[in-house]
Amino acid sequence: MMKKCLRSIAVAVVCCLAVPVMAAEKVEPVRMGCGIMTFDTVPGWGFDEQGRSVLGPTHGGVVVDKEGNIYTSAKLGVFVFSPDGKVVRRFLGDEYSNIHDIEIRDEPEGEFIYGARNVAGEGIKFHAETGDIVLKLPFPKESGLNLKKFAPTAITVAPNGDIILSDGYASNYIFKFDKDGKYKSHFGKKGNGLKEFNTAHGMTLDTRYNPPRLLICDRNHQPKGRLVHYDLDGNYIEEVITGLGMPTSVAIQGDYVSVPDLHGRLVILDKTNTIVAVLGNNEDPKTHRNFNVPQDQWREGIFSGTHGSYWDKEGNLYVQDWNVSGRLMKLVRVK
């Protein structure tokens, strides 16, 4: 099985090295992965009529709502696409710009987007359909911490509505608020120790376990990036997996976890946290982990700075690159 995986990756790389996205009249899909985690790319998904990305620079996340609409955050704001890649609405402007990570939650009043805004130094909650902002989470002075900078990079929500916000680009403390935004506690600190974080970059609720846990991307932990489990009260449980390069975020569907890696690949783990597939692997040192790869240099099936991902109900994946032109890709699961 592993040989088949590697062969699939190698074929995708060879097929795509000489195929810039805009260079040919028709770009063919690229198959990647292996076994039940085999996917085909959808060339041109989300582009405008001129074949260009509509997003502008991307450094954010992806989520999918109950209707199958895809939300992705960019420097300009939040864009919402239909499953066939058409823009259905946008939330643009200062209050929606530079959302680094997003999560979606179905609540009695509707579906809501939760976002971590590293540049603005806050967490945010807004209605997924109307864009109405209902909550903001600034640095909690009640914590007693005297921080010079607050730059949240990840956000998630516990089953009881508690909001968990990671200060991944600054102190590396992770803060816990109640559903109304009242500060409750914090945990963690910056460092390379077992219970320390060196860029707590991404985070989600790991629903593969009962009770659910926090699954945290410790992106720059030395000697290698890792995923770690904490309980919802901030108590360390275990290292989940190490040696991942620079894991940026995590998304769960059933027993599987998608883990974008800034080096230009997406890793899929199973329930035992074993790697079962690697997608879009970029072995070019000039273009992986590189924000400044313009659209006319994109290669179908090859990622550059993989930053966000999310599953839809059919098991398809939407993957965002950290990219100057704004790149969001659809990968269709091969049945």
Overview features:
single chain; about 325 residues; mainly beta; five-stranded antiparallel beta sheet; four-stranded antiparallel beta sheet; 1 helix; globular; disordered N terminus
CA radius of gyration is: 19 Å
Order of strands, widest sheet: 1-2-25-24-23
Number of helices: 1
Shape: globular
Helical percent range? under 10%
Coarse structural class = mainly beta
Strand content: 35-45%
Summarize the helix and strand pattern as letters: HEEEEEEEEEEEEEEEEEEEEEEEEE
Q: Runs with pLDDT <50, length 5+?
A: 1-24
Sheet having the most strands: 5 strands, antiparallel
On the 0 to 100 scale, the average pLDDT is: 93
Secondary structure tally: strands: 25
First-last Cα distance: 17 Å
Structure description:
It is a single chain. The chain is mainly beta and 335 residues long. It has one helix spanning 2-16, and strands at 31-34, 37-41, 62-64, 70-73, 77-81, 87-92, 101-107, 110-117, 122-127, 133-137, 154-157, 163-166, 174-177, 183-187, 200-206, 213-218, 226-230, 236-242, 251-253, 256-261, 265-269, 275-279, 306-311, 317-321, 327-333. The strands form six sheets. A five-stranded antiparallel β-sheet has the order 1-2-25-24-23. Strands 3-4-5-6 form a four-stranded antiparallel β-sheet, with no helix packed on it. A hairpin with a 6-residue loop joins strand 15 and strand 16 (213-218).
Helix-strand layout with pairing:
Blueprint: H1 2-16, E1 31-34, E2 37-41, E3 62-64, E4 70-73, E5 77-81, E6 87-92, E7 101-107, E8 110-117, E9 122-127, E10 133-137, E11 154-157, E12 163-166, E13 174-177, E14 183-187, E15 200-206, E16 213-218, E17 226-230, E18 236-242, E19 251-253, E20 256-261, E21 265-269, E22 275-279, E23 306-311, E24 317-321, E25 327-333
Antiparallel strand pairs: 1-2, 2-25, 3-4, 4-5, 5-6, 7-8, 8-9, 9-10, 11-12, 12-13, 13-14, 15-16, 16-17, 17-18, 19-20, 20-21, 21-22, 23-24, 24-25
